[in-house]
Design a protein that fits this description.
By secondary structure, the chain is α+β, with helices and mostly antiparallel strands. The protein is built from 2 helices and 4 strands; from the N terminus they run βαβββα. The protein has a single domain, classed as Ribosome hibernation promotion factor-like (Double Stranded RNA Binding Domain, 2-Layer Sandwich). Strands 1-2-3-4 form a 4-stranded mixed sheet, covered by helices on one side.
Length: about 120
């Protein structure tokens, strides 16, 4: 499964190809949660917060849409590389939880059908 086309936006900085490549590389680790034929869209925003001179001034925000479900992560760090790692980890956690929730609901539904069949026959 190929990762969807990523739309980039930059605020208060000039967007470099190296930043785009870095984030795309980090986000490709999330392919394990994507399936063929899903409706996918990804938006990434880079921002350099100019209100302060040092500290956490690099912000990355990612919105990933998978079949109508939005997964969103945002991180502000002292470098774009650290922010990209943080965003990837947050998205990984969200998508893993969503997968577990879907699996749990599927099992719960199966149990309910089994119970209806078992008690319906008596």
């Amino acid at each position: 499964m190929a990762f969807p086309m990523v739309q980039f936006k930059a605020t208060n900085l000039e967007l470099e190809g190296a930043l785009q490549d870095l984030v795309e590389q980090k986000l490709h680790t999330l392919e394990k949660y994507l399936e063929e034929g899903q409706d996918l869209k990804c938006e990434v925003e880079f921002e350099k917060v100019t209100a302060q001179q040092s500290g956490n001034i690099h912000r990355i925000e990612v919105n990933l849409y998978r079949d109508g479900t939005m997964f969103r992560a945002e991180a502000t760090e002292d470098s774009f590389e650290k922010a990209a790692d943080e965003v990837r980890n947050e998205l990984d956690k969200e998508m893993r939880r969503a997968g577990k929730k879907q699996e749990t609901m599927f099992k719960r539904g199966g149990r309910a059908i089994k119970d209806m069949l078992k008690f319906g026959g008596e």
